[in-house]
Amino acid sequence: MLFSRGWLPGLAACLLSCPPLLISASSSNKQHCKAVPGTSDWPSPASWRRLNESLSGRLLQPPPPGAVCHPGQPTYDTAECPRLLDNWSKLDYHHTDPVSTYWNNWNNDTCLPYQGYPCSGQGYPLFVVNATTARHVQLGVQFAKEHNIRLVVKNTGHDFIGRSNAPNSLSIWVHNLKDWKYHGSGFRPKNCKATLPGTYLTAGSGSQMWDIYTRLDEVNQTIVGGGGKTVALGGYLTGGGHSLLSPYYGMAADQVVEIEAVNPSGEIITANSCQNQDLFWAILGGGGSTFAIPTTFTLKTYPTPALSHLNVFILTPFPNTSSIVFPLQAYLTSQFPSLSTSGLSGYAFLLPPSTDFSLSPNTTVSVGGFFMSSVVLQSNFPNDILSLWNPILSHLNTTFLPPHNFTILTIPTSYPSFLAYFTAHHDTTPAGSNVLPGGRLLDRPALTKNLTKLAETYQKISQNGPEAGGGGGGGIVAAHLVSGPGVHNHPNKLKTSVLPAWRRSYLHVGKYSL
User: Fold this and answer.
1) What global pTM score does this model have?
2) What are the two backbone dihedrals, phi and then psi, of residue 407, each rounded to the nearest 5 degrees?
3) What is the DSSP string of 348-396?
4) In 440-474, which positions are buried (b, 16+ CB within 10 angstroms) versus exposed (e)?
5) Per-residue pLDDT tens digits for 1-33
6) pLDDT tens digits for 396-418?
């Protein structure tokens, strides 16, 4: 369920300022709550001024972005409000604001830019360190530690589970950490004796996928990276990082050879396979801001591949689909392990009956079925990718399609580089709504042993949000083929804390309830 606006801000402030009991030598029964405005240990205005001076003026106290649309708010602006409303659903707007996040519910809807809604700063950090160096991050961490203030980290705000925001907090905004150095002839991690062969990139944790892909393309390279322009290295790599290229090269975290970070004690440290190995392991998969705040990563790059791409549509009009759509989806995804082993990856979407599906900007039809954007690398276009799909589509033609009025449409396209593919197919999911995600990782037995149960599972997920771990309501199920041999067999798989289930799974099945 979505929380009501009335009572949650106060409760959230209480819960977020009072973490679980911390046991100290001086008082084993004392509860240590974080300082909040109005408590005796909240820093004085003079303390905040001194922090700002140490940061050379980089301490911000930003208002809620939606306040420009609310009369009575100090930043109310009749000229700016229409521009904000026009940009509220655009990812590019939110990542340039120091406190805004892509999805409203993580600010508890406390200041939406809509008439009739309340507006307060209760769902946002109170102060923000606009960090451009590791030293700025260090000063913010040390200040929060000294004054017992809740500390959060925001990069772009592309966070499905709300870690980049909290009330009554000091936020470290790492979006502007943009260090960049390409290593074309190997890389030697600090305090290591050997130079690693190959090509590597050292980049700030605020570096975003679009910028990375564009700049690396100039030297005919790419990385194992995310599918959205605004995904940034910091949160992506600390979460493990799945990618269209993962079935070939492994998880994104597997590519990292060195990290610079600020640890909870406020020290700037370097972690790699030769020093701080425990922290190196923990950061790579342990979740954003959990163990430290990374400021730069050094990771392996690869020659940018040519891609053969095939859009596959298998659709039937509603209401003919209620008894056959989910078995069809179960059969198709049961083929994913063998497709992955053969070199195919991509993003599939399982469409329940009565899905409004856009065939073009001016054409929307109500259908059920399956859609996938699939690729193979460095192939003989289009023969290689068609040879993988043709046996599957032939089986559908003889078993599923004739009595149920299904239509199969395949659209092949080739791309000379990963950047060319990404430019045409990057994620365009809108921001400015409420999103509660949920998902499962499915391995070969889950996908192939019992297709009847698999079909029933897809039906439940599509009809009930909680089955996917999200809120209520039915909808399209995302089925991303982003794991495979490269993830399962990567030599670094024991050197990261990536969820072990990735090492045997093929499919990430998820749903985003609105």
Assistant:
1) 0.90
2) -120, 130
3) EEEEEEEEEEEEETTEEEEEEEEEEEEEEES--TTHHHHHHHHHHHHHH
4) bbbbbebbbeebeebbebbbebbebbebbebbeeb
5) 222 223 233 333 333 344 433 223 334 444 578
6) 988 877 666 788 999 999 999 99
